[in-house]
Amino acid sequence: MRQKPLTSSQKSASMHHLGPALTLAIPGSGKTTLLLHRLIELVETYGVHPESILTLTFSKASADDMSARYEERFSHLGYRFSFMTIHKFAFNIFKRYLAHQGKEMKLLEDGLEKFKILSEIYRKHHHDTLSDDDFETLSNHIGLIYNLRLSRQDPRAEQFQWKDTFEMAEAFHEYKRAHHLFDFDDMLVSAIKILEKSPNLLEQVRRKYRFIQVDEAQDTSKLQFELIELLLGEEKNLFLVADDDQSIYGFRGAFPQYLLDFPDRFKSAKVYYLDENFRSDANIVSTAAAIITANTNRFSKVMNAYHPAEVRPSVHVFYDLSARNQYLISEKSQIEGNLAILYRNKISALSVIDALERNGHPFQIKDAPIREFSHWIIQDLIAFMTLAMIPQDLESFLRIAFKTNGYISREMVNHVKQHHRGRSVFSVLVEIPFLEDYQTRTQERIQAQFDALARLRPYDAIHYIETELGYLDYLKNNLQRLGITLNHARTRLDTFKSIAKPLKSGFEFMNRIEQLKQTLKENQFNSNEKIVLSTIHGSKGLEFDQVFLIDVNPQIFPGFKATEGDALEEERRLFYVALTRAKKVLEVLHVDFIGGSYNPPSKFVEEFLAQPFADHLFNNATGKSTTG
Known about the structure:
Blueprint: H1 8-14, E1 21-25, H2 31-44, E2 53-57, H3 60-74, E3 82-85, H4 86-101, E4 106-107, H5 112-126, H6 132-147, H7 165-178, E5 181-182, H8 184-197, H9 199-208, E6 211-214, H10 222-231, E7 238-242, H11 257-265, E8 270-274, E9 276-277, H12 282-292, E10 304-305, E11 314-318, H13 321-332, E12 339-343, H14 349-358, E13 364-365, H15 376-389, H16 394-400, H17 410-419, H18 425-430, H19 437-454, H20 458-467, H21 471-477, H22 479-482, H23 486-500, H24 506-523, E14 531-535, H25 536-539, E15 544-550, H26 565-579, E16 582-591, E17 593-594, E18 597-598, H27 603-609, E19 618-619, E20 624-625
Parallel strand pairs: 1-7, 1-8, 2-3, 2-6, 4-5, 6-7, 9-10, 11-16, 11-19, 12-14, 12-15, 13-14, 15-16
Antiparallel strand pairs: 17-18, 19-20
């Protein structure tokens, strides 16, 4: 296969021999090409043995991709190189230690077993159940303690959701140790300890891997860098390829500050730049480049486009989710090449999945949001509808009793539990002997409202639950305790309204939810479909002919906690990553109304529209320009 010649920037970086170096590679600039060519240069130009070069990556997918690309382009040379994740390297050290000690331990992955362990720890500390959302948050917090080497006094620890996070992390660590379990963070910590306590082994590893390359170094954690530096010999032959503007895994412990400090940390370090984007239309490159300059804690870079400017990026505005999704369906019929629908949070995918499936359009989805169907908000909605249709359903009543405007007390709930006996819960409520007259009238009103709810179509039923039954007020009054924003809640409610819109009954709605679960399970393994749904995080490293970015809404993207400083800059980097996935067409799709309330453009939409390379807002519902 004929190879494209390297650019002068790629060639210069690929010829780097000894000592530390950092290559800053903008999106689409050919960093994998650079890393592979440098391997060949080290062997053929400088006489380095292939087995003395270790190339580390952030993810297994990246390691596999790099290995596959090498086999495709250079297998005829017969060299054998090592491509692996940092965790795989650490695991090899740890596995060797366990074998030497005659110990057996089991890997604890992010699955059901870990959820059960953390749920029990959380229950002991907070006397409450651990939700799916809180499980993810607690897992990330514990990971940050490891990967950023956080102490209790660290300012970043003050942002943890729970004051006793360190205590729960210690309890988790003790559980793992008592049950001979280890996780990915333990691999790193253990590998460092083993090498520090075994000088002979450390020297052996240093002699074996004289040269170390690290791909996607902006995603590497402080703990991982600590391990990597430990492996360096006197020559410090460390070659990093990174883009600080694409560091988007802060919640997992990514430490981009290491890159910014690299020239000071290694005084002899050379810095190379890959500044030509071979992926995207020049308008897309210019728009993304201008937006990311709003970040201050970054390397200044020039970003040049290889392709000419042909299509202007644009923002399209729709009245509601249904109108937006219909536009996506119509665009699908005009598809040339592949198309990606990207979003900040998984919940955004659900209404799109519903529309695609209804219209018979196959798709593939990365990191399928199956758990979204177990979210407590949808479970609440189903409980409301179930209780309306089956008023004898005690379980549904117990779920939503305190989430209505029926002023139901715990004493009243206990009375229902004791006197229910298969009867309508509303009949039992109305007959409670210790209620005052006005309280009885309230329960009669609730009974009548649930009777009315049972006769409504699902779309109207959800609106009725929000308003007449007081569910939206419940959410507003408990936002802090629930750990959400009103916009998050309204986004979820609007998503389920969109799914419910064409349906006629509560039973149809529940069946549709189950059908969509099955659809997700079937489509998550598709890999050849032209339509791709993905979180922005999941799209990292990928490219698409057309990109549609959805739900760039206030408090959603950027997130409600990302109002300034490092948090806001990471959110802007995530926006930048989304924009730079597009090759030819880039559109941000904005919805004017969510949950019946006006949804203004987010900060990032405004920054997008401020660029001279992007089209102004256009209202696809009316066909009229929204800018007059």
